[in-house]
Amino acid sequence: MKPTLVVLAAGMGSRYGGLKQMDGLGPNNETIMDYSVYDAIRAGFGKVVFIIREDFADDFRKLILSKYEGKIACDVCYQSIDKVPEGCTYNPERKKPWGTNHAVLMAKDLLKEPFAVINADDFYGRESFKIIADFLISTNNQPGHYCMAGYRVGNTLSDNGSVSRGVCSVDAEGNLTGVVERTQIEELGGKIMFKDEKGQDVEIAPSTPVSMNMWGFTSEYLEYTEQYFKKFLEEHGQELKAEYYIPTVVNDLINNGKATCKVLDTPAKWFGVTYAEDRPQVVMKINELIHKGTYPNKLF
User: Fold this and answer.
1) Which of 113, 195, 248, 276 has the fewest C-beta atoms lying within 10 Å of its C-beta?
2) CB-side exposure of 231: number of CA atoms within 13 Å?
3) Closest by alpha carbon to 104, among 62, 140, 146, 138?
């Protein structure tokens, strides 16, 4: 059973100022998302589902999906504030959708097989797609077998400022036991440091696993997500900015013994445009990977 890749791209229109200005970082105007789809194809994924906003669906199909025709099956579904379970209510003043886990829920009717979830604008690296695909295939879609790519924190830093990361703790079997958000992570004097709750600098080992929102799930996760979303709306539906995040549900399922989440060590170097100054370095890193033969000069 080939897994599916779910790409969270609903923020793309606003972030890039419209799809026509989507940032081409590769030598033939390839976007970061193009590299993810290319990596997914060669890792063994059988389909890609894009979560987007309906207001740029036509442009998306014309400018993005057309590139992948004949390469991999693609589906599109739409995230919007009003897509909530029947009987649920929310604050009518709310302007933004409900976060990453709500975005995943939009694909519920399209996913009957194991699936991975990524952000559209993060460069995850070919090794991570292979590691996740192999794990998902091995589950045979048996419920409760989840995973995440555990990036080594030293491979996720920016040269242009500090970053925030979800620092993972794991048990002796390599299963996730918790994720703690750490802020102001950066290299200082040859050491990687973060600020703790008291504002003190604390050293963190370069190999410490962190979450970059690259998850793998068996298909029943979507049933849990819908149930939890109903509870979330009961508690937070009247708030204007509360968001429904993936780690919230994963942590709960782990704590209730309904699932395990294997933290899969990846040697890949993550990169993205956290700061405007990051862009030239991202272009340079992609060119380096092309020169090494990791990617062809033209992807599609």
Assistant:
1) 276
2) 7
3) 146
Q: Exposure string (b/e) for 245-273, b if CB count within 10 Å is 16 or more?
A: bbbbbbbebbeeeebbbbbbebebbbbbb
pLDDT per position as a tens digit, 65-109: 999 999 999 999 999 888 898 888 889 989 888 889 999 999 999
**CATH superfamily, domain at 4-151+211-291:** Spore Coat Polysaccharide Biosynthesis Protein SpsA; Chain A (3.90.550.10)
Rg (the chain; Cα; Å): 19
The pTM for the full model equals: 0.93
Please report, for the chain, the start and end positions of each structural domain, with discontinuous segments joined by +.
4-151+211-291
Contact between 154 and 129 (Cβ < 8 Å) = no
Measured distance CA(205)–CA(152) in Å, rounded: 9
**Rounded to whole angstroms, how far apart are CA atoms 111 and 123?**
24
